[in-house]
Design goal:
By secondary structure, the chain is mostly beta strands. It is 11% helix and 46% strand. The protein has helices at 6-15, 132-135, 163-169, and strands at residues 31-39, 42-55, 60-64, 71-76, 79-84, 90-93, 96-112, 115-126, 144-146, 158-162, 174-178. The strands form three sheets. Strands 1, 2, 6, 7, 8 and 11 form a six-stranded mixed beta sheet that branches. It has a three-stranded antiparallel beta sheet with strand order 3-10-9. It is globular, with a radius of gyration of 17 Å. The protein starts with 5 loop residues before the first helix and ends in an 11-residue tail after the last strand.
Amino acid sequence: MPRLNSEPYREALDAKGVSKIPQRLSGKMDYKRARYLFHPDYAIRQALLVDSKAEKSAPVARVQTSQTSMRIRQIRAHQPVDVQGELPTVLALGGQSFLTTTIFVKFIYEESEEGNGLRMTRLACLPNGMLQDLYNPNAEDAIWVAGPNAPSLGEEFRTRLSFSRLRKKAEWRVQDIPINPEGPFVWVG
């Protein structure tokens, strides 16, 4: 799997002109930005957290509990599991509140004799924990699939976000941006 150089990625996100709040965010994400999110009727402070990966396939995103404010309710080894994500739904920093927003970016590539070629970029917006009952009310109605950790080896709990399950709940939360498309890109949902 190719390693992603995140510096150009950060520069590209910063260059998009998003509003910035001078507040430092920490966490296990590739890009972290305190910013304002503007709506026609109001503005809200947001803790924008973006994780990126380059892989050959794109059915899931690997998620650590430190990357979500949702409870992870799923079936594992035929048993229901309920693990609390470690991010707060609203992050309190410097006397201000920030709505926690997690986005996963997957760079999907094809291997060839000439090297790895980027085929598509997939963006997925993980629901905030405030939306738990809508997106993952119980272990049977889940957006998650079993993670890559091995509990028998004492590995830390991880899960995978299923893009198809999330798309069934809200199509707009998963967007595929093809590289060299035949037609213009259109947002879904």
